[in-house]
Design brief:
With 158 residues, the chain is mostly beta strands. The chain contains one helix and seven strands, in the order αβββββββ.
Amino acid sequence: MAIWDPFEEVRRLEEEIDNVFNDFWRSGGRRALPSVKRGKKGEIAPVEDIVWMPAIDLIDKDKEIVVKADLPGVDKNNIKIKVDSESISISGEIKKEKKEENETYYREERVYGKFSRVIPLPAEVDPEKAEAKFENGVLEITVPKIKESKKIKEITLK
């Protein structure tokens, strides 16, 4: 009869966490950390159930905010963008199939999944003037900041 060793479970979990962070740091912080779901008895959920969050760069310029999202393999028709005065929401779906056939082997891979990301903005923006472009798997959204009012009203207490 095998005896359950809780310390072995902790060592296994520590190794999984180390692998995730090692992959993240090897990619220069550009690869999104996966959100791993766990099923019964702590086993890792199948790959298709893992939520993917694209890597995001937020650049706060003088008059505008630029958000860049890495979306490799995503078709531009499967991307939805919503901009309000305080945040940008990017969501979509990836559907990718790859087949390779040779005399000695046959390989077929399929990737399907949905993603969603809400980016809070550091300044108020004008959503009506937002622009987006998608080239080589990189989505770039540019939104002008709303100019702050320069009027100052001094109030005296009565």
